[in-house]
């Protein structure tokens, strides 16, 4: 028998079902966080609205094929950089306020706040995927010169948004942008003879900065403009008991909440450990307290299933651009999950990165759902044939 060669687009119910499960977990976690009485707003209702809006964004993006995305990539990238530039030059006003030492938001009366860097992450994924695809199509035979040129192109694409986000300052989002860059560099085809020295230099630089943090913080503050509160976060991570009244308060409360949940959790009672802003960055601690080790394991397992499915999707797609999109989104989501959960259990320092799809926040949710829209599009436009068989 032959193959029926009619292409059959198909909505990916697997991704949609996983997103529905994340929606359920998010609603339960936010409801529990706000039931403690520390908030006057109904964040649960707002999160449901954000999910509806974000779902519409994901559904709309799904219909864009790879050719259309490549054509739009630089427009989206330029738009994201433009928004970051506005924040860079804007004064401290009610429209562009400084919050917790960072100027990262636009405030729209009646609508809430929008954080452009959440969208810039996804725009960077698309732009870097386009850069790698076009370069590899142009240079079929690769040498050191071609690999170095690609690395330079990717570095320049990263540099502008990274510099603007760092200037806000927003270290957490900057690390996400770097994670996306690193993930795509590894699969871009660049020789390890070039990658290894480049990342060795970065490792030495990182080690030097860490040494300065520990032994010469005055140098970082005076000559590199590092904010003292960022250094406090590092010290609080390494020795939270000594900084219980400063940067370690959230961490200590998080550890207490997660530990008190034990295996099965306390249930949603509204009488748990007090965690400021528990509905956002520390929502995993809320879930682990209420549902224990079992509940925390379920959340982590959902992310593993999502990442596994996106890896499978990236390997199955026949277009290089779509594979790079998958790698970029996987890098973004994976880093978010490891960083967010890691900071709640003191494995990693606190950086203010939300837990994808679960933490409350319109910008974060829309940015992540925009990324899922790209993944739905990769699956939707992937060629499938009815009644396909070999023989």
UniProtKB/TrEMBL annotation:
Coiled coil: none annotated. The chain crosses the membrane at residues 12-33, 48-65, 72-90, 105-128, 148-165, 171-187, 194-216, 291-311, 323-345, 357-378. InterPro entries: FtsW/RodA. Pfam families: FTSW_RODA_SPOVE. Keywords: Cell shape, Membrane, Transmembrane, Transmembrane helix. It comes from the Bacteria. PANTHER family: CELL CYCLE PROTEIN, PEPTIDOGLYCAN GLYCOSYLTRANSFERASE MRDB. This is Rod shape determining protein RodA. It comes from Priestia endophytica DSM 13796.
